[in-house]
């Protein structure tokens, strides 16, 4: 039987290599968990989908970095990042979540505090690279730049994107978005290497 951490490492290496099967496995393992978590805290399934996609982008970006070492399961990492993304979205919308990630007397309080501190570190690292990511996005070109902006900045659904960009269905639009993200990652990574 394969050791759980070996499985995580294999999946992570698969993500780095843009292996479709590894990506699908990470998706299957964690997608429902993140959507359920966001839904339980006032979000819709669309909100959960958006949060999960953003968390996956961050994981892909981190996995490309040679110095990145995952010290927990991929699912734990994705949930921690998703929590921060969702709380940040709520803060931007000037809404308060039903559960704030501070010790509130419940048994998970201490655990949630630690996870939230990890979330902040991830977000701080993300913001440090934000300008380089924007430069990579500009270098990406069309239609990828507009497609990614439509999804991440304008909160358009995959159905809306498929219609506006002339794809036959949502699955084709998702495939194109994935290809665009892959190209964006490479440009971003090259910017990091050459900075």
Detailed description of the structure:
This protein folds into 2 domains: 1-101, Rna Polymerase Sigma Factor, Chain: A (Orthogonal Bundle), CATH 1.10.1740; 129-195, Arc Repressor Mutant, subunit A (Orthogonal Bundle). 73% of the residues lie in helices and 0% in strands. It contains 9 helices and no strands. The radius of gyration is 17 Å and the shape is globular.
Using brief descriptors, characterize the structure shown.
mainly alpha; 2 domains; 0% strand; 195 residues; 9 helices; Arc Repressor Mutant, subunit A
* Helix/strand class: mainly alpha
CATH architect. name of the largest domain: Orthogonal Bundle
What count of domains describes the coordinates?
2
**How far is the N terminus from the C terminus?**
43 Å
Largest sheet: none
Strand element count: 0
């Amino acid at each position: 039987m394969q050791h759980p951490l070996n499985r995580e490492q294999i999946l992570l290496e698969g993500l780095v290599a843009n292996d479709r099967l590894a990506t699908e496995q990470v998706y299957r393992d964690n997608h429902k968990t993140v959507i359920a978590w966001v839904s339980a805290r006032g979000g819709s399934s669309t909100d959960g989908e958006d949060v999960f996609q953003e968390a996956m982008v961050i994981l892909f970006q981190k996995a490309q970095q040679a110095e990145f070492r995952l010290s927990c399961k991929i699912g734990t990492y994705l949930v921690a990042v998703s929590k921060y993304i969702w709380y940040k979205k709520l803060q931007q919308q000037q809404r308060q979540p039903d559960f704030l990630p501070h010790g509130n007397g419940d048994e998970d309080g201490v655990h949630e505090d630690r996870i939230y501190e990890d979330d902040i570190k991830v977000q701080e690292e993300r913001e440090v690279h934000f300008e380089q990511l924007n430069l990579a996005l500009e270098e990406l070109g069309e239609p990828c730049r507009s497609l990614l902006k439509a999804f991440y900045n304008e909160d358009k659904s995959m159905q809306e994107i498929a219609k506006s960009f002339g794809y036959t269905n949502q699955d084709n639009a998702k495939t194109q978005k994935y290809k665009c993200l892959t190209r964006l990652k490479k440009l971003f990574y090259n910017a990091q290497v050459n900075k």
